[in-house]
Amino acid sequence: MGCRALLLLPFLSLGAATAIRTGLKTLGSLHLPTNPTSDPAITSRYSVFYFQQKVDHFGFSDTRTFKQRYLISDKHWKSNGGSILFYTGNEGDIVWFSNNTGFMWDVAEELKALLVFAEHRYYGESLPFGEDSFKDSQHLNFLTSEQALADFAELIIHLKRTIPGAESQPVIAIGGSYGGMLAAWFRMKYPHIVVGALAASAPIWHFEGLVSCGDFMKIVTNDFRKSGPHCSENIRKSWPAINRLSSTSSGLQWLTNTLHLCTPLTSADVSTLKGWITETWVNLAMVNYPYATNFLEPLPAWPIKAVCQYLKHHNVSDTVLLQDIFQALSVYYNYSGQAKCLNISQTSTRSLGSVGWSFQACTEMVMPLCSNGVDDMFEPYLWNLEKFSDDCFNQWGVKPRPHWMITLYGGKNISSHSNIVFSNGDLDPWSAGGVTKDISDTLVAVNIPNGAHHLDLRANTAFDPSSVLSSRLLEVKHIKKWIADFYGNAKLAGLSNF
Predict the structure, then answer these.
(1) Is the pLDDT at 384 greater than 90, yes or no?
(2) How far, in whole angstroms, is CA 374 from its chain's centroid?
(3) Which residue of 97, 102, 113, 188 sits 20 to 30 Å from the alpha carbon of 37, by its own alpha carbon?
(4) Strand 65-73 and strand 113-118: pairing?
């Protein structure tokens, strides 16, 4: 579901910082196309509502409110003995997320579930200050995960008060990528409101001091290494090849023509070009699904294998290598054959709440990425918090608080919590910051071989590997236990008629 998940930091400098920006863009922007469209088969099954939310849940003098959008489907809901599956919306339009979270639609009948998709503040139509929401840091000051979780809590309380039959039913939080992080944190912070959470591809540990900043790029590299002979090796060789060819004006012209770029490449654009190519490889790792999709761009099944078909030659010249790189890039940007040229200033994730996410990445969602060029296929770059902080201040007038999320949500010290399933695919680079080992009997890791970014939250298809099918069955098993425990405890307490 959502993913690059997936984020945009356009203010970062070029070169190494561009690569860092690329990874951050990934967490949020994996999720949204430029113009989210509704699947008619799904759209006809949900209704759109708005709830008046407080702009600031944690102060008392600010009484301003805004309309939070949410979607509801009650097709399979049973007011007697049913459940509520609550999607914790992330950095984009909630309609797009509902259309791409087929898992919830697939299990709704089995769980007698009311489906609720809640839009995250500052994304989609849920803008606290309308067109001024992104005007400056003062208007963006209320864009935090804490405020978003409070929105979700208030919305659930409202639904239970206003929907007959919902007041005595268990709520399960479900989300993917940043939305998966929110689902896990929602259960941690509001255990009296949600009985459990399914956190898919949720890198809740991808913060400074918790995991190595280089693990992300190692997983991307391994995806390419496994997908074809010499594939990752040729990508690693492409960076110095680009540097050599771009050192002359004739080489720049040759690169422009060979890569079919929309605008002539200049020496000042070379870092942008390499950052754009880097981002492409990262995107492919996240959407390396076993069937054709148009999640970010129209792509074939197992797109990295398709890319690596063009990168299998050994010890070729710089010009041949870059011609192969163009063919590989075309799998991502021109699989449909409609593109007349490639625009290095644009990627498919630009439309995902990029402005809002760049602010979040500059305040609380500081997720370090780095590369050494040896254990991975990318140019070496270091994580430089001071430089990152300066760039954030230049863009937004704010400085990041890199350790706040650990203070707020506990980092790796979460064993006191319960009823959270953390799922991760081994092809997904964001699994580097995910929970991949059981912490307790009720904090469970579900690892999915051959699974890309939150593949388990996508709809069942005939092309799904057995690993994701069994993972979904296990996830439903845990959800059913939470529901049964809820009703069992309610009976004992005399709180319901069940």
Answers:
(1) yes
(2) 27
(3) 113
(4) antiparallel
Q: Show the DSSP H helices in 228-302 as ranges.
A: 231-245, 249-258, 270-286
Total domains, the chain: 2
CA dihedral 314, 315, 316, 321 (to 10 degrees): 70
CA distance 119 to 83: 20
Active-site residue, from 74, 93, 428, 464: 428
pLDDT for residue 251 is more than 60: yes
Q: Write the DSSP symbol of residue 293.
A: B
Considering the domain architecture, whether residues 426 and 325 belong to the same structural domain is answered as no
Torsion of CA 38, 41, 45, 49, to 10 degrees: 10
Active site residue 177: yes
The active-site residue, picked from 29, 73, 83, 177, is 177
CB-based contacts of 145: which residues, under 8 Å, 6+ apart? 181, 182, 185, 360, 364, 365, 405, 408
Q: What is the CATH number of the domain that holds 337?
A: 1.20.120.980
46 Cβ contact list (under 8 Å, min separation 6)? 71, 72, 73, 98, 115, 117
d(CA 177, CA 26): 10
Same domain, 48 and 20: no
Q: Is the pTM of this model over 0.85?
A: yes
Query: Residue for token digits 């399914």?
Result: 198
CA atoms of 107 and 112, how far apart (whole Å): 8
Instruction: Tell me which residue range forms the domain holding 86.
Output: 40-202+414-493
394 within a domain of the structure (yes/no)? no
pLDDT band at 33, cuts 50/70/90?
Answer: very low
Q: Is 453 among the residues known to form the active site?
A: yes
Q: Among the three residues 384, 406, 422, which one is the final residue of a domain in this structure?
A: 384
State the catalytic residue, choosing from 31, 139, 206, 453: 453
CATH assignment of the domain containing 184: 3.40.50.1820
165-217 tens-digit pLDDT = 999 999 999 999 999 999 999 999 999 999 999 999 999 999 999 999 999 99
Q: Report yes or no on 359 lying in a domain.
A: no
Instruction: Grade residue 410 by pLDDT with cuts at 50, 70 and 90.
Output: very high
